[in-house]
Structures are given as structure tokens and as C-alpha cells.
Amino acid sequence: MALGLGAKIPASRIESLYRDDGKKIFSQRLSWRYFGGFLKLIRQVRRTLYDYEVLMQLLYREFGDKTLGDSTARLVIPAFQAPKTEIAVFKTDHHPDFKKDHQSKMWEVARATSAAPTYFKGHEQEGTIFLDGGIWANNPVMVAIVDALSAYDISRDQIRVLSIGAGNPPFEIALKYAKRGFWRWKKIIKAAMFLTTDNAQAQAGLLLGPENILRLEPTGSAAAIELDDWEAAVKTLPQMANLHFNKNKQTIQKFFELEAEPRQRFYT
């Protein structure tokens, strides 16, 4: 979504990638539902659930040969890389230290940051395999705040954050699971990823003050929609988004009162 907006793709077209093309990306979900969760689990143990080439083709259709440096907005896109396990953040060239990422194709950056483990195969680029940035930055708010503070001569009290999430369902882990082996720990690992969301939000609140952060995300049962449940997402999330928008319209409007100056371009 951020890459699309940076590439001046209309928001309505970005939405259609989810509404209209979600069934292509997650076409096999019907099979998992029909045969039951056990077949899906076996598939996830042995290989990824979905064909990454479908997603790759759709991303290339939207971005073509545009590079990250073509973005009109300042972007920081988190990813996770292997085989040497390191965090990665793709950045536009809005600071002289950011010398390389701007050359990356937008579709590849989108593919890298959305390669959710067990769902899609990692994206290989120049001998490095990139995986979903949600592994370590499920809520990337601190990635953006740190970049703003380090790239520009500004203070914390100058920052206001509009943060849009994908849901953070509460997790309860039975004590007996925490005492058992890997098979039981798979749920705890998933819970740990969502804890990074809470941690980032808490850190941002301590740094900027909670009154300077507006966080919007699905709540209730909508927060627990699985990553590949395209049907439930299309049915539930747009309505909830409209409710949240109308409820917070005045606060959201403040983020658009002043037009941002064109971003710095040190290498593009």
C-alpha cells in the first residue's frame, strides 16, 4: 500500500488488488477449507501454502519497472533476510547515507516485505532471501520514527503518527503449552510476533506521548482474520474501516492540513 501511494497509484486501484485479485493470490484456500485444517497443516510443514508467482505477476502488473527511488514519498519498508539472519529496511534516497536501496524495483520490494513464512516462498535477490518484515516489525511505527529522528534535524515533539494496523488479536497461552516441546510452541511463536506490535506501540507512546499517535486497526473478531482469509477480509474490513474513519475524521484531518515538501533526492 505504501509503495503504491508512493508510485502515485490511486488508492482505489490499490484496494482492488485486495478486493479483486485476492482470490487469485489465495486461490488454494478453498481446497484447505474443503479438506480440513489437517491437510493445510501438512502442506505448511513441507512447503509454502501458496504460489508466489501469482503474487509476483500481480505486483509487476502494478509497478512495472518503477524503482523504489521513483517514489514521491519517503518510504521505509521492513523485511527480514537470510541465510545470514538480519533485519532489512528498504529506504528511498531521502538521506545521503541511503545509497543503494533506491535502485531496487518496487515490485521486488513489495514481494520481499510480503513473503510471509509458510505462506509464500522467500524472495531471492543477489544471493539474499528476503522474508516478511512482520517477523520483527509487525507494527513498523518505530521504524518510521527512528528514521525521521535520525535522517532529519527534528525533535520528538514535532512528530505526529497516523498508524494503520491489520489487527492485533489477544493471545492466551496455556501454561502447559509453555512447558512442552516445539509442536506446542508454534502458537507461542505466533503470539510473540503479535507482541512486537504491542511493544512498538508502547515504545512509540513513551517516546512521543500517546496523545500524538492515532492507531487504527481491526478489533474484535475482525482482528483474528487469518492472513489468507480473503473472503472474510473483503466482507468485514471495509465496513469497519469506514466506521473507524468516520469516528476519527477530525483527528485524521489534522494530518493533511499542511502539504509536505517534496522529499530529498540524493541519488535519483
User: What share of residues are in beta strands?
Assistant: 5-15%
Q: Round the mean pLDDT to the nearest integer and report it.
A: 87
Give the topology string: H per helix, E per strand: HHHHHHEEHEEHHEHHEHH
Gyration radius over CA: 19 Å
Total beta strand runs: 6
| Main β-sheet, spatial strand arrangement | 2-1-4-3
* Biggest β-sheet description: 4 strands, antiparallel
Termini, distance in Å?
22 Å
Q: Helix/strand-derived class?
A: alpha+beta
The proportion of residues forming helix, as a percent range, comes to 40-55%
Overall outline: globular
Number of helical segments? 13
Low-confidence stretches: none
Quick description:
By secondary structure, the protein is an alpha+beta fold. The chain has helices spanning 2-6, 11-19, 22-25, 29-35, 37-46, 52-63, 106-113, 134-137, 141-151, 175-178, 182-208, 230-247, 249-254; strands at 76-82, 86-91, 123-125, 128-132, 161-164, 213-216. The chain has a four-stranded antiparallel beta sheet with strand order 2-1-4-3.
